[in-house]
Design brief:
The protein is α+β, with helices and mostly antiparallel strands and 538 residues long. The chain has 3 domains: 25-111 and 193-319, no CATH class; 114-188 and 366-399; 322-364 and 404-538, Outer membrane efflux proteins (OEP), CATH 1.20.1600.10. 63% of the residues lie in helices and 16% in strands. The strands form 3 sheets. The chain has a 6-stranded antiparallel beta sheet with strand order 2-3-4-5-7-8, covered by helices on one side. Helix 4 packs across helix 7 (194-257). The chain starts with a helix and ends with a helix. The model is unreliable at 1-7 (pLDDT under 50).
Length: 538
């Protein structure tokens, strides 16, 4: 093969190595998605697809395209799916996870074989002389080893031709190899691979943070959804109360016209009717504002009509109170061993300690041993190299730590950062302890309050019935029936509110114990790990 064929083949190789931006992006996605899915599967035990690209068929996009004008019968599971597709904060968390994995691909690349390929062509000369044309190709390989050694190997192929004389092309090739190994500063796998180690851990932290956010986000969505159900129930209760008070007012007006009732009792009923009307307007307005806020949370256009599934409230009431068989000491002990954010905080203390060691290494003297060798081919025979013509060089370089003020400051900064990481870990432990105590206390108190409120509803219902019978028999006044009706309304609203409070407090408790599961089926509680841990602890 002559020189022209070599140059042509090299040019084809170089052109084949050039990829389009979209091909580079696709390659990055393939590598990143594989990393993220593997880390999430290791954490959760389930293989879940990961993608940061927005779905073109999401509910929001269908609404914007005019394919949907209203959403009816919206259940909690559907809300979670819609929020996962459209919520902006959740999209940002996905992107943060993607970028952490992308950083890891870079650190892995840095410790692998790195190839390069350059080519040059040109001509020079003077006005009196046609000059010379030349070209060169320079493929190379380099690698940073775990010991800190850097290896660079390269091949150079050059050609030249005198334009004026019309001579043929002359060519030669060069082989070069150099190795540099630090012996003091910068030596050792612990120092060299610190960036890779941190990138690996950062990806793990982001995976944990993302899973933790998903569970917190799901509880927030459930909280907003159940609060909407509570407000809808309050509107229904107020509508029923308004109708009841209106009928009392009409009855009193008829009796007053017949001379059997004083005008003051008519006014009392009218006043209660007006108060009920005002409350009904305020409750409806509050519900409308909450629905709009919920649309924002789901990432849907505000103009869409949103109607919740009424059977969700029935299921909530049927479920009622579920026993919480967790003591405060057990909950705290389990959480401190399994909370994703707490485990991350502990490992971040270790990270800060490693950075102190790396900063201390930078204060040492530099002592490097280097070796290089090169060979130039025979003229016009680029493939022929003679061993006896190989030139080599070995050297030893010393860099004494005479003035290391930047490194000294970096070392002290890392020591302070380590202390701060320890304090942050201790603070998080205290926050977890306080949070679990408060959440468990809230769950127990709201559960007891719901039992009280249920009894209050039954009592208020009997009171309304008795007041109505006494009113018909002439043994009670209008004020008696109005007060009984108001007490019934307040008891109904309080019972619904305490049920929602208990349901959410229970979800928060198991979320903070890291026992909450969020998947296609919605939100569920997996207490089997806690039961196994409890048995092993006994």
């Amino acid at each position: 093969m002559d020189l022209r064929h070599i140059l042509f083949s090299a040019a084809l190789l170089a052109s084949a190595a050039c990829e389009s931006p979209s091909e580079h992006a696709a390659a990055a996605d393939e590598a990143v998605y594989a990393l993220v899915e593997a880390r999430r599967a290791a954490l959760t035990g389930e293989a879940t697809p990961f993608d940061i690209a927005p779905s073109p068929d999401s509910l929001r996009q269908r609404i914007l395209r005019g394919e949907a004008a209203a959403v009816d019968g919206l259940g909690l599971v559907s809300c979670l799916v819609i929020a996962a597709e459209n919520n902006r904060e959740l999209s940002e968390r996905r992107e943060s996870l993607y970028l952490a994995a992308l950083d890891l691909t870079l650190e892995r690349w840095r410790l692998g074989w790195i190839g390069g390929f350059t080519a040059e062509a040109g001509a020079d000369g003077t006005l009196a002389d046609a000059g010379e044309a030349s070209g060169s190709l320079s493929p190379s390989l380099s690698r940073l080893l775990g010991t800190g050694a850097s290896i660079v190997a390269g091949i150079g192929l050059g050609v030249a031709r005198n334009i004026g004389l019309g001579d043929g092309w002359t060519s030669e090739s060069t082989l070069a190899l150099s190795v540099t190994q630090p012996l003091l500063r910068g030596a050792g796998r612990r120092i060299v691979t610190e960036s890779l180690t941190q990138a690996e851990r950062d990806l793990l932290y982001e995976v944990r943070s993302f899973e933790r956010f998903r569970r917190t986000f799901a509880v927030d969505i459930a909280g907003s959804y159940y609060r909407l159900l509570q407000q809808q129930d309050a509107v229904a209760n107020e509508e029923a109360n308004f109708e009841t008070v209106r009928l009392i007012r009409l009855r009193n007006e008829a009796l007053a016209d017949a001379g059997r009732l004083s005008p003051i009792q008519v006014d009392q009923a009218s006043q209660d009717e007006l108060r009920s009307a005002n409350r009904l307007l305020a409750t409806r307005a509050a519900l409308g504002s909450s629905v709009d806020e919920f649309k924002l949370t789901l990432g849907l256009p505000i103009s869409i009509d949103l109607n919740l599934d009424p059977t969700e409230f029935d299921r909530l009431q049927e479920a009622g109170l579920v026993e919480i068989g967790v003591g405060v000491d057990e909950a705290i002990a389990y959480a401190l061993g399994h909370r994703l954010d707490f485990v991350t905080s502990l490992e971040q203390v270790e990270d800060a300690g490693r950075r102190v060691a790396v900063a201390a290494d930078a204060l040492r003297a530099g002592l490097d041993v280097s070796f290089s060798a090169s060979s130039v081919s025979e003229p016009d025979r680029p493939g022929r190299h003679v061993v006896d013509d190989v030139t080599w060089e070995a050297s030893l370089g010393l860099d004494l730590p005479v003035d290391r003020l930047p490194e000294r400051n970096a070392y002290r900064s890392q020591q302070i950062a380590h202390q701060a990481a320890c304090r942050a870990h201790e603070q998080l432990e205290d926050v977890i302890r306080v949070g679990l105590r408060d959440t468990l206390r809230s769950a127990l108190s709201t559960g007891e309050a719901h039992e009280i409120n249920r009894n209050a509803v039954a009592l208020a219902e009997r009171r309304v019935a008795n007041a109505r019978m006494n009113l018909e028999a002439g043994r009670a006044s209008t004020r008696d029936i109005l007060e009984a009706q108001t007490a019934f309304l307040e008891a109904q609203n309080a019972a619904t509110r305490s049920l929602v409070d208990f349901t959410l407090a229970r979800l928060v408790l198991y979320r903070d114990m890291e026992l909450l599961v969020v998947d296609e089926g919605g939100i569920s509680i997996d207490d089997e790990p806690f039961e196994r841990w409890n048995e092993e602890s006994e």
